[in-house]
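ARCHIVE CARD
Drawer: 12
Card no.: 0347
Subject: one protein chain, sequence and derived structure
Cross-reference: see card 0346
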Amino acid sequence: MKRIFLSIIPVLFAITGFCQGLKPVKLDNDVTVSLFPGYQKKDTTNESIYSVNGLYGFMIAIREPNAKNNAPLKKASDLNRALKTYIKGIQAEVPNSAAENVRDTTIGTLKAKVFTLASNDDQSEVTYRNFLILYTRDITYTFEYVYPESRVSIVKDEYKAFISSIRISGDLTWNEQYLSKATGMSSITKIELFGGAAVALVLLVVLVAKRRKPALG
């Protein structure tokens, strides 16, 4: 038991070191992520980009306002579709890349997508980009952690510390992503629909029976 405990200590120290080095940075009043000191911020017309070198990888956080004419997403399935489209867009921007291990996660009460993009631009070493995409009605937040294939075995703790540091305010709830949790027709709608169909079927049977009834005389 002592041997197992001692083997965990270096991991705990590593995570603690990352957490002590990372400092909270407000992307806005709703979302915060921790970055290493000395990060750079670049503001453009459409987005704000925060970036910094970590110990083993490169950290990026992007805050991008959505188009003002975007129609609100109605259901969770619409959100899932929008996030998949977003992933395809990112993949299209990186030549010779493939999205791997696409999966769902949550940040507070919000749904998000996590995936890894692998690319080999110069044919020498594969570059990995771990993404977390968080969509809200007004803003899309993209968190990216970039590292070379040679560091795959050592980036796990730093990446985890980076992604785990994402915090959202209590004002951001699920209805900032889509409008309704309904997954189908309500019970009343189903009764009305199926009831109307049954009445129509009965009328059709009666009508067909009258037409087939032989005339008397």
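Annotation on reverse: The chain has two domains: 2-176, 185-217. The chain has a mean pLDDT of 82.
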